[in-house]
Amino acid sequence: MEPLRLTLLFLHLIGFAMLLGGSIAQYLTGRLRINPAMLWGAVIQVVTGLGLAAPLRGGGDHEPPSAKLAVKLLIGIMIFVMAFFSRKRDEVNRGHFLALTGLTVANAAVAVFW
């Protein structure tokens, strides 16, 4: 199942790039809104993250601690909810937008440093 895990990891990284890249691009425009790249990036992150944490792991060398998975899942769901329910607004609150971007960076930090 190694090719499947690697494919999911690749897609997970693409989702992160879409989410962070979309938020940076949107921030630079000066109009803070949830763009499609951010929304789809959040969806891809949650779906592929669940796939990576599923029984596909098989107990090999790639099995992360359960607490790490729970923290990443919670942050991922928070990001998705913040993006999904704000997606139709013409503009979102600055704090909301920066929190979504900060949670994206924090989720990457949990993945790398934990």
Explain what the structure shows.
This protein has 114 residues and is mainly α. It is 75% helix and 0% strand. It has helices at 2-29, 36-53, 66-84, 94-113. Helix 1 runs antiparallel to helix 2 (36-53). The longest helix is centred in the N-terminal third of the chain and has 28 residues, at 2-29. The mean pLDDT is 93.
Name the descriptors.
114 residues; mainly alpha; 0% strand
What is the chain-wise order of helices and strands?
HHHH
N-to-C span? 24 Å
Low-confidence sequence ranges? none
| Average pLDDT for all residues | 93
Q: Report the helical percentage.
A: over 70%
- Major beta sheet summary: none
**What general outline do the C-alpha atoms trace?**
elongated
Using only C-alpha atoms, the radius of gyration works out to 15 Å
Number of helices in the DSSP assignment: 4
- Approximately how much beta-strand content do the residues carry? under 5%
Overall strand count:
0
Structural class: mainly alpha
Q: Identify the quaternary structure here.
A: single chain
Offer a concise description of the structure.
Helices cover 75% and strands 0% of the residues. The chain has 114 residues and is mostly helical.
SSE layout and pairing:
Elements: H1 2-29, H2 36-53, H3 66-84, H4 94-113
